[in-house]
Amino acid sequence: MAITKTTTIERIDVIPAVDSSAEDTTNAAHPTAYVVYLDTIDDSSDDDLPIVHTRGKTFEKFDSEGNATVYSSEDVLVQDVLGAIWS
Fold it and tell me: Would you say 35 and 7 are in contact if contact means Cβ atoms under 8 Å apart?
């Protein structure tokens, strides 16, 4: 059998802006999101599987060069949350 990987979202935490009076072009003026993913690796022919790995990813409105963060490749739920907190 083939090994499969399935990724699900466990939760999305939204952290309020650090300084809502900061310049609008800084991350400090906007909320940050922390997404916790669960990656499940499985093979139905292997009794030692599945293995579940937890990983987290932080999203800020701007990247290190000051450009808007690109998140179009993320899960639709993540896109919706980020779009809502940064609109």
Answer: no
